[in-house]
């Protein structure tokens, strides 16, 4: 393990060098967006679009690792393209999200029912406290690119948000983004 300067492209999220990558596609969001008909229509019209891509830089033996998430612009009905949302598997592990380009909203909620939204825009570094669920939402017309950094042992718990949803939704209202309570959220 040696020190290294890693280049990050703020417009594409490309990392050099990188150690891993995955993409998420529209069809993987079935049951997550409330407007299933809009999802079906979009899949039929545009195919199984990549909605976001995650690239990481990880060194074995380090406590920290980091990477980028690059989110495409788009909507399913009145909901914007978003990440799956997760808690960390370890309840004592936080994270930061530092926005490089684009605009969005970081939705968060705690286990005891508090909710927060943090604007994602260049220059803003969002602090995600341990044990807060987090989901990012691209509310802009271009890519939303952010750098994240957390502990390698933080782990991901996607199942809880997949089954219960987030407490808030971000929806387009007359072309502006609004956060509303999620009527389908299950306590
Ligand atoms: Fe996270």
What tags apply to this protein structure?
Jelly Rolls; 3-stranded antiparallel beta sheet; 15 strands; 6-stranded antiparallel beta sheet; 187 residues; binds fe (ii) ion; mainly beta; 2 helices
The total of helices stands at: 2
Strand order of the largest sheet: 3-4-5-13-8-11
Q: List cofactors, ions and other ligands.
A: fe (ii) ion
Please outline the major beta sheet. Answer: 6 strands, antiparallel
Distance between the termini: 44 Å
At the fourth CATH level, what is the homologous superfamily?
A: Jelly Rolls
Looking at the structure, the CATH topology is Jelly Rolls
Which sequence of SSEs, written as H and E, runs from N to C? EEEHEEEEEEEEEEHEE
CATH class category: Mainly Beta
Radius of gyration: 16 Å
Which structural class matches the secondary elements?
mainly beta
Based on Cα principal axes, name the global outline: globular
According to DSSP, the number of beta strands is 15
How many domains in all? 1
Name the poorly predicted regions: none
Portion in beta strands: 35-45%
Mean pLDDT score, rounded?
97
Query: What is the helix fraction of residues, given as a range?
Result: under 10%
